[in-house]
Structures are given as C-alpha cells and as structure tokens.
Amino acid sequence: MTSDVLRPGDRIELSGGYDFEPAWLDGRSSLLGKVTSFIPGQNDLPAAVVALDDPVRVYGISGSTVVIEQRYVGATWTATGVVHVELCDFEPDPSRWQDRRQGKWVESHAQYKKVD
Hints:
This protein has 116 residues and is mainly β. It contains no helices and 6 strands. Helix content is 0%, strand content 50%. The protein is globular.
C-alpha cells in the first residue's frame, strides 16, 4: 500500500526508547515533526531527516533536527518502525553518516509512526 510508505512531507510522532523515561524526549511523552528529506544512511537504507516542531535539549546539545535510521536489518520506511535517533544542531549534509558532520546519538530504540 503506497500510503504506508514514509515520504518527505509526512508528519511523524517519535516516542519511546531504551529507558523508562527517555532523556532524549526532554520531559515529553513524544515529539512531533515532519520528514524533510532522506539522505544516505550508515548502511544501504537511507536515513530520514526530520524537522521537529519544537527544539529538544539533551546531553549538552539543543536542536530541532533529527536524523533517524532504521534499527533492524531488513526494515524499510513504512508507517511505523523502530529507529536510532541522532540530534543535530545543524542541517545534515546529504552524505553518508561516516562522511558527514555528525550530530549526537541520543537514542537507539525510539519508535516512529506517521500521523495525520
């Protein structure tokens, strides 16, 4: 179903994490944002760049852009999934993670879902 594919312009909600009260959520239950683009990821699957509705401050960095990458091998960009979260205080270049300026990895087990 094409509506299940995550695309630039889609709104998503990010939540959850490895800890009971994940620090990366900055005291909130979830974060909302819009997928602005896909850039090369660490592996074969592209990473999604998300402009958050509100900035987040965690681990000494404040930013309103996150790069999310699929957590599990074989996963694809569908309407929901589990992702790594990289918080950026800059707009990431469209280069592989290994070849670009990197943000701060703030979560390894976040969940995302498309919202209306």
